[in-house]
Specification:
The complex is a heterodimer of chains A (290) and B (718). With 290 residues, chain A is of the alpha+beta class. Chain A contains twelve helices and 14 strands. Chain A folds into three domains: 49 residues, Uridine Diphospho-n-acetylenolpyruvylglucosamine Reductase, domain 2; 112 residues, Uridine Diphospho-n-acetylenolpyruvylglucosamine Reductase, domain 3 (2-Layer Sandwich); 109 residues, CO dehydrogenase flavoprotein, C-terminal domain (Enolase-like, domain 1). In chain A, 37% of the residues lie in helices and 26% in strands. In chain A, the strands form four sheets. Chain A has a five-stranded antiparallel beta sheet with strand order 4-5-10-6-7, sandwiched between helices. In chain A, strand 8 and strand 9 form a beta hairpin. Chain B has three domains: 194 residues, Aldehyde Oxidoreductase, domain 3; 306 residues, Aldehyde oxidase/xanthine dehydrogenase, molybdopterin binding domain (Aldehyde Oxidoreductase, domain 4), CATH 3.30.365.10; 117 residues, Aldehyde Oxidoreductase, domain 4 (2-Layer Sandwich). Chain B has an eight-stranded mixed beta sheet. Chain B has a five-stranded mixed beta sheet with strand order 9-17-16-15-10. A four-stranded mixed beta sheet of chain B has the order 18-26-27-28, with helices on both faces. The radius of gyration of chain B is 26 Å and the shape is globular. The chains are: A alpha+beta (290), B alpha+beta (718). The interface between A and B is medium-sized, with 16 and 21 residues.
Chain lengths: 290, 718
C-alpha cells in the first residue's frame, strides 16, 4: 500500500524547483511514477511530498534542434516508440523503446523519470551514454547545467542531481552518415539482466570509431573502453570470430553487479557486445554498400 | 449445442468491467484487515504487544491467538495442523501472528506496523533433504491429527515426512537381468507460485450462531465444512457466496484466508474485508517443491522392466493439500507403461517454508518429466527411436494403471501418434534444435459428489443451479450448453447463477478437471428430470411443450453419484500427452519454444473453443514453470523474490512460436455425452516434452526451471 503523501502541482520549472528546495529531504519529483510509486509501495521510499511535474509547461518537446534530438523530460517511452521523427533519426532508440516493460508502463513512464531514478538496469541510460547524449538540469537558483549522460548516475539509484534540481531535457546527437547504433538486452526476470549499446562509425569500409556501453549486469551503466580497440579497424563484413575479442574485453573489464552469478553476467555482456556489434556492422554495410 | 463453440455468456460483463469480483463488493460497515506476519521462519513467540496498535486512530480490533477463545482455533482439511493465528511458535516466514481490523486500509496498515512481537529464533529446516535427515528439527511435535477431509484409514508417520504414498507391485516376479539398461538420477522441481490475477479476497460476518462469507474460492462447500468444524456450527448456519473468481489454478482450493477472516470478524463484532496483495498471496499458498531419485530399467529387447522412485514433496509448515499432491506425484512417477515391477515411495514432508497446496496439474507436473527423460535416455542407450520405445510399452485401454484404481480409459498410442505427426517426428533438425514428446495420465474427477438443480422459472427462463465455480475456465458456459442440449431451449434462455451455499446444491470442489465431467453430469441428469416434468405437465394440462412460460414453475434434480466410488481417486484418467520443438541459444542458455502440440483427449468436446483455450492457458503456465519461474528462499527460509518484479510470470511475449491443440473425441469419458475433463493434462505432458526436447537439443536437464543461467552452466559443465 502507498504511504501517505502530499501531492504538489507546480506549473513551471522554477516553481517545481522551489518546492523541491522548500521540502528538501522530504520531497521527490514525480512524473510517470513507474519507478517511484513502486519503490514507495515496496517501502523503499517514503517522501512526504511528491512534486508532480506532469503539469509543468515546456517539458514535452520532441524535435530536432542543432543536430540533436531534443527530448523533453516528460516525453514518455511510448511517444519515443511511436514517433516517426525518432524512427527517422534514431531508429535504434525506437527499437529499444518497443522492447521495454509493457505498453502500460511505456505509456506512463517518462524519459526524465527513467534517468533521474538512477536505476542501474535502465536501457535508456545505457543507450544514451553510447549515443553521447547530454542531460539539461535546472535548479532553484534558476541555472541550467548540462551533464553528459555518462556522468549522470554515480551509483545505483544515485545521480548528480541536487535536491532542488530537475531534468528538463535530453539532447541526443543525431548520428551522422556512416554511424550506427545497436542496442541489445537480455532479461531473466522483469528487469533486464544485461543491456549493451554499441555505436560504430565507419569510413572506407572499416570501423573508425567505436563506443561500447554496458548496464544492468554492472552496478551502473558504464562505457567499456577496453572493447573499443577490438572493434576499431574491423571491416564491415567481419566474421563472427573477429567480434569475439571485443566481447571478451568487455566481459573482462566490466564491473559486475554484486549478488548475481558473476561468470554468467560476464558471459551475457560478452554475447550482447558481439550481437550489438554485429547488428551495427550490418546496418553500416547496408547503408554503404561496397 | 454440444460441440459448438458458443460464446461465453459472461464475456460482455468481463470485457466491460461490469463483472463483480469479491473485492468489488460494497459491504456497509466492513472493517479493513491488515495482517502481521512473522519475519522469521522458525521462532518461539516471546511477547506480543498490541497496545500501540490498539491506540492507532481508526483501529477497531487487534486480534492475536490469545483472543481466539471458546473454540479450537486450528484448521486444515487433511491434517488439522494450522493455527488461525500463530500460538507460541511460528513455523514459516510469513505466518500470520496477528490481525488488525480498522475503519480504513491506512489505519489497518498503521496498526499492523505498530504491533510488537518478540521472537526467539529456532533452527529452521528449509530443504526436504535436511527435514528428513536423522535428528532433524521437527516442524510439528506430536502425531498429525486428521482433518475433516482426511480419507478414513489414512496413516500418518511421526517425523517431518508425515505421510507416504506407495506404489508397490509386480506384474512379473523376478529380478532385472544383469545386462539391462539402467538409467538413474536425482532431480528437483522448484516451489512456484500459482499467480491468479485476482488474489484471495474474503468478506466475512460472524454473528452469534451464524457465519456469512463472500469468498473468491474454488470449493465453497468444503470451505463451509471447514468453518463449521472450526467454529462449531451446523453447516446450515454457515453461508458461503462466491462471485466471479479471477483465476484459481488451485490457489483458491479448500480454505485459505476464510478462517482468519471469520475469527477476526467474530473478535471485532463487525463484518471484515480481507484482500490479499500478490506479496501476501505468495505466502498464502504455492506449488510444492520436489526432490526425487529415480531408476528406470529397460531390457535389451526394449521391454520396460522396472521403475523405482523415492520422492520428497516439500509441503511447507502446514499440510494443506500436500498428502493428495504427494499421492498424485507418486502415481505420475510410474508412467503409463507396462512395467514388470514398480516401487514408488512418495513422502509429504514438513519444512519451515510457506505452506504448499494445489496447483494445476500437480503431481504430473512434478514427476512426468523425470520419468519421461529417463525413457528418452534408455532409448538413446538402446539406439531405438523414442516414440517407438514408448509405443512398445504403453498401456492399452483397459489395462491397470495403478492397482486399486480404475483401468486406462484412453488411447495413449493414438494420442502420441497425433503429436508425432504434427511435429514432423523423425525429420532432421539443425544444431541446438530438439524435439520431444511425452505421455502420461493423471487421476481426475476425485469424487462423484456433485448435485445440480434445473428450474423452469416463471417467465419461461431456465436456471441451472450447480456448485462448480466460474474461475475463468467457462464452467457456466458449458453447464448452460449441457442444459440447453437436453432441454432443447436456446442458450440465451438459460442462466447459471453464482453459488450461494444456502440455495445451490452440493458440489465437492472445482478442480481435478471435474466441472464438465462430474458437475456437468449432474446438470445433464437435472435437465433430464426437468425435461420429463415439462413433457408430463404439458400432456396433463394440454399445453404445448414449447410454451415454457405457461408450464413454469417446474424443477428437476440430478447428481453424478452414478459415477460411484471404489476406483480410487480416478473417476477417469486425464491424458497428459504433448510434444514440443525448441531451440537452445548456446551462448546465453535461453530456450526458444518454437512449437507446441497438445492433446486434449476429452471424449467429447462440449465447447471446442473453451477446450483449446484451456490448453493454451496451461501451455503458457508450463512455459513459466519449466523455463523460468521459481520461488527463491534463502537458507533462513525467507522468500527472496516475493514480488512480481523479481518473480517473473509468463507474458504474451513468452508464447511459443506455434501452438496447436489436437482435440481427440473418442466418446470414452464418463461425463455428459461421453465427455471427460481437460485443462490440467498439459502440465504433465508439456513440461516433459519441453525437457525431452531440450535434452534432444543436447542439454541434459536434472532440475527445473531450465532458466537461461542454469542451461548455460549445464552446457559449459559438459
Amino acid at each position: 500500500m502507498l504511504p501517505d503523501f502530499t501531492l504538489l502541482r507546480p506549473q513551471t520549472v522554477p516553481d517545481a524547483c522551489a518546492l523541491l528546495a522548500e521540502h528538501a529531504g522530504e520531497a521527490a519529483a514525480y512524473a510517470g511514477g513507474t519507478e517511484l510509486l513502486l519503490a514507495m509501495k515496496l517501502g523503499e521510499a517514503a517522501p512526504r511530498y511528491l512534486v508532480d511535474l506532469k503539469g509543468v509547461r515546456g517539458l514535452d518537446r520532441l524535435d530536432v534542434h542543432d543536430g540533436a534530438l531534443r527530448v523533453g523530460a516528460l516525453v514518455t517511452h511510448r511517444r519515443l516508440e511511436l514517433s516517426p521523427l525518432v524512427a527517422g533519426v534514431l531508429p535504434a532508440l525506437a527499437t529499444l523503446e518497443r522492447q521495454l516493460a509493457n505498453p502500460r508502463i511505456r505509456a506512463t513512464g517518462t524519459v526524465g523519470g527513467n534517468l533521474a531514478s538512477g536505476r542501474p538496469h535502465s536501457d535508456l541510460a545505457t543507450f544514451l551514454i553510447a549515443a553521447g547524449a547530454t542531460v539539461s538540469c535546472v535548479s532553484s537558483a534558476g541555472t541550467t547545467r548540462t551533464v553528459p549522460a555518462a556522468d549522470l548516475t554515480t551509483a545505483p539509484f544515485r545521480t548528480v542531481l541536487a535536491e532542488d534540481e530537475v531534468i528538463v531535457a535530453v539532447d541526443v546527437p543525431v548520428p551522422p552518415a556512416g554511424t550506427a547504433l545497436a542496442h541489445q538486452r537480455f532479461i531473466l526476470v522483469e528487469r533486464p539482466a544485461a543491456t549493451v549499446t554499441v555505436r560504430l562509425a565507419a569510413a572506407g569500409g572499416v570501423v573508425t570509431e567505436a563506443r561500447v556501453v554496458a548496464g544492468a549486469a554492472s552496478p551502473i551503466p558504464r562505457a567499456l573502453p577496453a572493447a573499443v580497440g577490438a572493434l576499431t579497424g574491423l571491416p564491415l563484413d567481419a566474421g563472427p570470430e573477429r567480434l569475439w575479442p571485443a566481447g571478451e574485453a568487455a566481459a573482462e573489464t566490466m564491473d559486475v553487479a554484486p549478488g548475481g552469478d558473476e561468470a554468467y553476467q560476464r558471459q551475457l555482456v560478452a554475447v550482447l557486445v558481439r550481437r550489438a556489434a554485429r547488428a551495427a556492422l550490418t546496418d553500416l554495410a547496408v547503408a554503404s554498400p561496397a | 449445442m454440444i460441440g459448438q463453440s458458443a460464446p461465453r455468456p459472461d464475456l460482455a460483463a468481463k470485457l466491460t468491467g461490469a463483472a463483480e469480483y469479491a473485492a468489488d463488493l460494497d459491504v456497509p460497515g466492513a472493517l479493513r484487515v491488515a495482517l502481521v506476519r512473522s519475519p522469521v521462519a522458525h521462532a518461539r513467540i516471546t511477547a506480543v504487544d498490541t497496545a500501540a496498535a490498539g491506540a492507532v486512530p481508526g483501529v477497531a480490533a487487534v486480534v492475536t491467538a490469545a483472543d481466539l477463545d471458546g473454540y479450537d482455533a486450528t484448521w486444515g482439511h487433511y491434517v488439522r495442523d494450522r493455527p488461525i493465528l500463530a500460538r507460541d511458535v511460528v513455523r514459516f516466514a510469513g505466518e500470520i501472528v496477528a490481525a488488525v481490523a480498522a475503519e480504513t486500509d491506512a489505519a489497518a496498515a498503521a496498526g499492523a506496523r505498530a504491533v510488537r512481537v518478540g521472537y526467539e529464533p529456532l533452527l529452521a529446516v528449509t530443504d526436504v533433504r535436511d527435514a528428513v535427515a536423522p535428528g532433524a528439527v521437527r516442524v510439528h511435535e506430536g502425531p498429525a491429527r486428521p482433518g475433516f477431509g482426511c480419507p478414513p484409514g489414512t496413516g500418518f508417520d511421526s517425523g517431518n515426512a508425515f505421510f507416504h504414498y506407495r506404489v508397490d507391485y509386480e506384474r512379473v516376479a523376478g529380478e532385472d537381468p544383469a545386462d539391462a539398461i539402467v538409467i538413474e538420477g536425482e532431480y528437483a522441481f522448484p516451489a512456484v507460485y500459482q499467480y491468479a490475477m485476482e488474489p484471495h479476497v474474503v468478506v466475512a460476518t460472524a454473528g452469534a450462531g451464524s457465519i456469512d462469507v463472500w469468498s473468491s474460492c474454488q470449493h465453497p462447500f468444503l470451505v463451509r465444512q471447514e468453518l463449521a468444524e472450526v467454529f462449531e456450527l451446523p453447516e446450515e448456519r454457515v453461508r458461503i457466496r462466491v462471485p466471479f473468481v479471477g483465476g484459481g489454478f488451485g490457489s483458491k482450493s479448500y480454505a485459505k484466508l476464510e478462517p482468519v477472516a471469520v475469527a477476526v470478524a467474530r473478535a471485532a463484532g463487525r463484518p471484515v474485508r480481507l484482500v490479499n496483495r500478490v506479496e501476501d498471496a505468495m505466502l498464502t499458498t504455492r506449488r510444492h517443491g520436489m526432490r526425487c531419485r529415480m531408476r528406470t530399467v529397460v531390457g535389451l529387447d526394449g521391454r520396460m522392466l522396472s521403475r523405482h522412485a523415492e520422492i520428497w514433496m516439500d509441503t511447507g509448515a502446514y499440510a494443506d493439500n500436500g498428502p493428495t499432491v504427494t499421492m498424485v506425484a507418486g502415481m505420475a512417477a510410474t508412467g503409463p507403461y507396462r512395467w514388470d515391477r514398480v516401487h514408488v515411495d512418495a513422502a509429504c514432508v514438513y519444512t519451515h517454508l510457506p505452506p504448499a497446496g494445489s496447483y494445476r496439474g500437480f503431481g504430473a507436473a512434478h514427476l512426468q518429466w523425470v520419468g519421461e527423460s529417463q525413457v528418452d535416455e534408455a532409448a538413446a542407450a538402446l539406439g531405438v527411436d523414442r516414440l517407438e520405445l514408448r509405443r512398445m510399452n504403453l498401456l492399452r485401454r483397459g489395462e491397470t494403471v495403478i492397482p486399486g484404481c480404475g483401468p486406462l480409459d484412453a488411447d495413449l498410442a493414438g494420442d502420441l501418434d497425433a503429436v508425432a505427426a504434427r511435429l514432423g517426428w523423425g525429420g532432421d533438425l539443425p544444431a541446438w534444435r530438439g524435439r520431444g514428446l511425452s505421455a502420461g495420465v493423471s487421476p481426475a474427477g476425485v469424487s462423484a459428489r456433485s448435485h445440480a438443480r434445473a428450474e423452469l422459472r416463471p417467465g419461461g427462463r431456465v436456471a441451472v443451479l450447480v456448485g462448480s465455480q466460474e474461475i475463468g475456465q467457462g464452467a457456466r458456459t458449458v453447464h448452460a450448453q449441457i442444459a440447453a442440449e437436453v432441454l432443447g431451449v436456446p442458450l440465451d434462455r438459460i442462466d447459471v447463477p453464482a453459488t450461494d451455499t444456502t440455495t445451490t446444491p452440493y458440489d465437492r470442489s472445482t478442480g481435478a478437471s471435474r466441472s464438465t465431467t462430474v458437475a456437468g453430469l449432474a446438470v445433464q441428469r437435472a435437465a433430464e428430470r426437468l425435461r420429463e416434468a415439462i413433457v408430463a405437465t404439458a400432456a396433463r394440462r394440454g399445453v404445448p411443450e414449447s410454451d415454457l412460460a405457461a408450464l413454469a414453475p417446474l424443477a428437476g434434480e440430478g447428481s453424478a453419484e452414478e459415477l460411484g466410488g471404489g476406483s480410487g481417486p480416478a473417476l477417469f484418467w486425464e491424458v497428459c500427452v504433448a510434444g514440443a520443438e525448441v531451440e537452445v541459444d548456446s551462448e546465453t542458455g535461453r530456450i526458444d519454444v518454437r512449437e507446441v502440440v497438445t492433446v486434449a483427449d476429452v471424449g467429447r468436446a462440449v465447447n471446442p473453443s473453451l477446450v483449446e483455450r484451456q490448453d493454451e492457458g496451461c501451455t503458457l503456465q508450463v512455459v513459466g514453470n519449466a523455463l523460468f519461474e521459481e520461488m527463491r528462499f534463502g537458507a533462513d527460509g525467507v522468500l527472496r523474490n516475493g514480488s512480481l518484479l523479481d518473480y517473473r510470470v509468463p507474458a504474451l511475449s513468452d508464447m511459443p512460436g506455434r501452438m496447436e491443440c489436437v482435440i481427440v473425441e473418442n466418446g470414452d469419458g464418463p461425463g455428459p455425452f461421453g465427455a471427460k475433463g481437460c485443462g490440467e493434462g498439459v502440465f504433465g505432458g508439456l513440461t516433459a516434452a519441453l525437457v525431452t526436447a531440450v535434452t534432444d537439443a543436447g542439454v541434459r536437464v536434472p532440475e527445473l526451471p531450465m532458466s537461461p543461467d542454469r542451461v548455460w552452466r549445464w552446457i559449459h559443465a559438459s
